[in-house]
Structures
1.
Amino acid sequence: MLTGVFQAQKKDGTIYYRSNITCRSKHISLGSFSTEQDAHQAYLEASRILQDTKITIDLVLFSDFLLRHEKIVTLLNFRDNHIYIKNPIYMFRSYFSYYLTPEEIYKFDIDDLFYFSGHKLLKRGGHLYVNDYGMQVTVLSRYGIRNFAVAGRDYLFANQDPYDLRYENIININPFHGVRRSGSGTAVFYDTFIHIRGDFKIGSYRTLHEAAIAYNKAADLAHQHGVAKNFPTNFITELTAKEYAQAYVEVKISDKYKKYLKQLE
């Protein structure tokens, strides 16, 4: 066998070749290949990456290598930062970059390194998520952003870079269910909607907390009129129990919504 290559066999008897390299006592798997020559080429590329400091994370041309981009990033991080991370992460001084693709690179705070070292970043339907304990968890939920929140309406990127997911760059405008911000400048309102057989507007409110409480009250009214749906609850931790109870009593609900509920009985 060529250097760095090991022959293996699938259950159906098909022969394939695995490529490996050892550096600083770390045994690194480079992947599986259909030919011995490709497996050896992967070994040579890995050896070059680990030795040639002219190949940097900023200048590397992923298309020049047979190795997958994930493995190239892993090798560069291991070479430069002396830490082996199986996911395509490269560490900088105060943050790290996750190379989802060679072109799609996300920045995270260094405090999240442990989490993303063990959770592979995935993307489907434009949403970033990880598999956590058998469940698909959206990355934005780590910032208190709801699954169906809309960028520009419910949250903003301070530097307008949607690939920068450091905490200081994400502004969570609306952390509550059923609430949408409208208007601009000093004329800002919060519209509350509840979904029963479609979105139904409950009302418009001057404050975010009023709008969130209005959603809770609308959900309670729906249950009282026999609507068997598990509505999420908005928790307003900034208010005491007494303050919440008073706001709950005072908040106004659309008469049109109340009439609609009676029709459902």
Note: The chain is about 25% helix and 30% strand.
2.
Amino acid sequence: MLDQNIQLAKTKMEQTIVFVGSELGKIRTGRANPDMFNKINVKYYDNDTPLNQIANISVMDAITISIQPFDKTAIDDIERGILESDLGLNPSNNGNSIMITFPPLSAERRQDLVKVASKIIEDGRISVRNIRREIIQSTKKIEEDEKIPEDDMKRFMDQMQDVTDSFIKRLNSNQEAKEKEILDN
């Protein structure tokens, strides 16, 4: 029973790590990355539609992305969606596709991106700690009902803390890697 709760915590914490990784992938680092367009919605036939559902997004080289709409009539809507996003990009529309060239990041913009990454990581840490708290609370309720021995409960608490610490450590290393990526490009 206690082992099941440890496994449940690990599963939920792993989901947090995956989510944080996907959010970090959306942060612009000076290199062309199609994942950063996943959060852009485009007004397409009066519906907010994710950009990646109405266009093919491909990396041309380290600093250029090409966006090929499936429907050429949507090209102006796609361009408007990119301009209205918080990415700070200037798309170039040639009538058939949109080209985006990533300018080098300024030192000030790099610091802003480091802050954004830090916030994402901190939210991940909070999520991991909340998972630990939820699992411990549910286990304590079971302990009262089923009279789990105190030694087993102490061992469980130690294991939960070890699991939590290992996931926090992974988040910290993700943060260091992302900061290095932002500042070194």
Note: The radius of gyration is 22 Å.
3.
Amino acid sequence: MAVEIKRVSPQELEKQKEFTVKTRNLLAERYDSKPLACVVTYGCQQNVADSEHIKGMLEEMGYGFTDNRLEAKLVIFNTCAVREHAEDRVFGNVGALKKYKLANPDVIIALCGCMMQQKHIAAKIKESFAFVDLVFGTHVLHRVPELVYTALTRRKRVFELPDMDGVIAEGVPVKRDNDRKAWIPIMYGCNNFCSYCIVPYVRGRERSRLVDDVVAEFEQLVADGYKEITLLGQNVNSYGKDLEPRVTFAQLLRLLNDLPGDFRIRFMTSHPKDCTKELLDTMAQCDKVATHLHLPFQSGNNRVLRAMNRGYTREHYMELINYAKDLMGDELSITSDIIVGFPGETYEEFQDTLSLVKELGATSLFTFIYSPRLGTPAAKMEDPIPYEEKSKWMRQLLAAQEEISAQQMALHKDKVFKCFVFGKGKTGDNYLAARTDGNLIIEFEGDEGLVGTFQNIKVTEPLTYIMMGEIERN
């Protein structure tokens, strides 16, 4: 039976529109010109999508935008809680604004996102960062107009951090960062409770958007000229488990693939536990679905995987990978996530991860040394291996993957790929950067007018992590 998901009512959304108007009128009274807002985003693509909705609401409230925090009248930090390093960066950057706030008391400084949903973090902000005006959690994003208006009109600080499983809010305005590439969250939250991960505690339980809402947003993006559209979720493979009638993620992909238009569909992130052969078949059969599979395995050792509560084995993971390779061959690009030095992991167990890396043949990896998260089971586990030793393991892993990445890139010399040109390149002033169907980057000389288009590009020189190329002339 599907779980009942709380969806924000039309009345609540109308209430937020009223606060939008109130805020716009208030700002017009206070300032001679449009006040500027600066939204600083940390973490994953889901946070990027959330920030685009925050900016959409702020724009309707009368704010303009700047990347310079020291000229903004409203600074919002949208935070990430996945690793300690990200949290330390937030504290440092917020602390750096104390002098600016003291000199400009009308400035509103706000913190939101995953970090704020942790009680000990919110307590630290309350006690040690008295100049922060507004703190709100992941479940009240749609209430930004009300919260900002309250912060502007009340003398005391505003903390809005409800302890709940989350909601679905449709119709929230969005200001996208790119006019050809877009993110669509199709679900929120996570039910997996990997022992090292804080996400289920700060994002709530899994909840899927209705198919019609996803399709309508997707169709509008295509109509507006967007060429690369990425479907987002903490675990997209779980999409639809809470819907009646049940819809699988693979079925959603087919629906979107069959829409008219010239576009490419990407998705992230997938969990091996819920990755199905139906999904892999769909990737192979749908011409608009990218043949890039980001499938985090985290560890190559089964004991460590059990301790992580990942719900699959090394053997099952490789069964999925080999099935996908058989279906898509050289067109398939695989990327993955790895945690090095999980509590209790031995060097021998790390060697299993290293051997899986060599067996997998990924084009690239996202690798992290374990970072304890307060409130997760792993944070209470014995962790006898010193950080310095884990760093040595990490260097071994990176060296192995660098060799593998170069080998993978070398396979593509002289091949021609249909690529989405997404921006300026890094190898020279006249170079542009493009992305293949398999998420590989090719840089080539070209005019900036090609940005936002699909082009056929021939690989002339494979490097380790990118390739050089040239436009294929007919």
Note: The chain is about 35% helix and 20% strand.
4.
Amino acid sequence: MTDPIADYLTRLRNAIMAKHKVVEVPASNLKKEITKILFDKGYVLNYKFIEEGPQGTIKIALKYDSETKVSAIQNLTRVSRPGLRKYTGYKDMPRVINGLGIAILSTSKGVMTDKEAAELKIGGEVLCYVY
């Protein structure tokens, strides 16, 4: 697999479109950090890391509105990819839907949101946009 982050986002996107409650994704440290951010920001209901087999898996419980059955995640977009990396400094941090969404960055201090990176005044590779 050439782009495991794109695969992770596609699995989430497909599970949301099919209205699944839970999705399982092969684990990696980067995917675990992205999952923690999605949980902290309220985009997923819950998650569980299963250390089974050589790689392990991540079980993610998706979050839907109880009345309208609309997912908390409207869009997942991969920004930086293996063929074309996208980097940003803290001064020109991308704004996702005028600050309503989040951009997830991989920085020298770890994986974090665009707002956290701007507070710490560090830039990094823009992994994806979530809203």
Note: Helices lie at 4-17, 29-40, 114-120.
